[in-house]
Amino acid sequence: MASLPIFQPSSNSAQLMQAKWSAVLNPLLSNPITQGIQLTDILLAIGNNQINTTLGRIYKGYIITKMNGAYADIYATTSPDYSLYLVLNSTGSTTVDIYVY
To answer: For the whole model, what pTM was predicted?
Structure first.
């Protein structure tokens, strides 16, 4: 994952500031949830729905960020360890926005 590059500034205070920024920001940059993408207006039919995550890698998880339409129970039917595609089972037809990471 991403991390801040380390430069060798001539001033001591700049070195300390850079070290502090790296210590704070590198954990955030390496968190998988910050490497995600928002998928919008995904139509889910009743039953299994295969969704291309467009991440180009195996996804770690997902968050339903918005549901337009009737309430439906939605759950993943495959483990993120196995696929580039998210397979969601829905108990009703609805349109959702999904953050995949």
So the answer is: 0.74
Please give the backbone phi and psi of residue 79, each rounded to the nearest 5 degrees, phi first. Answer: -80, 145
Q: Over the range 74-100, which residues count as b (16 or more CB within 10 Å of their CB) and which as e? A: beeeeebeeeeebebbbeeebebebbb
Which strands form 74-76's sheet, in the order they lie side by side? 47-52, 85-90, 74-76
Strands (E) across the chain are located at: 37-44, 47-52, 62-68, 74-76, 85-90, 94-100
**Under DSSP, is residue 41 helix (H, G, I), strand (E, B) or coil?**
strand
For range 18-31, the mean pLDDT: 86
Tokens, residue 9: 């500034």
